[in-house]
Amino acid sequence: MNGLSTLPTTSEQARHALLLIGAPATPRLVADVHGAFFDGDLSVPALAALRRDPSSGLCAALDQDLFSVRGMIALGDWSIERRLVTPAGRRADALATVIRVAGFAAVRPAAARAAHLLLRSLAETVPHGPEAVDLADAARDALASPSLVAALAAEEPARVEAVARALTLPRSQQLFGLPSVPHQRGSW
User: Origin, by domain of life (predicted)?
Assistant: First the structure.
C-alpha cells in the first residue's frame, strides 16, 4: 500500500458541497449535502477545524454589522455580497438551495437513498414542502412569494451599506468578520 488517497481533501469536499448549496450554510447542512451526493468522509468536526484554517478556502458568513455569523460557513472566494447573511436573504438562500439540491438529485439517481432522506429533511423548511408533489416547485413558489420579495427589497439598502463598509476592511476581516469586543462590566 502506498498511502495515497484518491479521495478529495476535506476542504475540497466542503467546497463541492458549498458550491451545490450556493450560499453560506451550517456545517451540518454542508456535511449532509456532501454525504448525499459525493464520495468522502466529510464531518461537522472536520468542518469546524477547517473554518479556523485560513488556507482551507472556507471563511465566515457575515452579518450586516460585519461580524461572523455563528455556525455558518462560506467559500472565501465568494463575493462579500454572497457571504452576507440577512434574515430574508437567509430564507431566500435556503429556498434556492432546496431548488438546486432537488435538481441535482433528479440527475443523480445513484444517490437515491441518501438524496431522498436529505430532500425529506429540506422539505420541512419549505411551505407546503412535505406534501408537495414537486419540492422544487414548492420552493420556487415560496421564493416568489410577495412577502419574501418585499422583505428582500426592504433589506437591500442595509446590504448595500454593509458591502460598502466591508470593502474598506483588510482582507482578513472581509473573510472572518470584525473582532468582537467583550462587554465591560460596570463602570469605574
Answer: Bacteria
What does pTM read for this prediction?
Answer: 0.88
CA distances in angstroms from 25 to 47, 83, 163, 185, listed in the order given? 11, 10, 19, 34
Q: Is residue 50 within 8 Å of 10, Cβ to Cβ?
A: yes
State pLDDT tens for residues 89-99. 999 999 999 99
For residues 122 and 107, the answer to whether their CB atoms sit within 8 Å is: no
The rounded radius of gyration (Å) of the Cα atoms in the chain is 18
State the Cα–Cα distance between residues 97 and 115, nearest whole angstrom. Answer: 13
All cell numbers assigned to 163: 458591502
62-75 pLDDT per residue, tens: 999 999 999 999 99
**Does residue 82 carry a pLDDT above 80?**
yes
Query: Using an 8 Å Cβ cutoff, are 160 and 84 in contact?
Result: no
Please name the residues in contact with 25: beta carbons below 8 A apart, sequence gap of 6 or more.
Answer: 17, 18, 33, 72, 73, 74, 97
Q: pLDDT class for 107, splitting at 50, 70, 90?
A: confident
Is there a contact between 171 and 80 (Cβ–Cβ < 8 Å)?
A: no
Cβ contacts of 35 within 8 Å, gap of 6 or more: 42, 114
And the C-alpha cell for 76?
472565501
Cell of 94: 435556503
Q: Helices in the chain by DSSP H: which ranges? A: 10-21, 27-37, 44-51, 80-83, 87-107, 112-123, 135-143, 146-166, 171-176
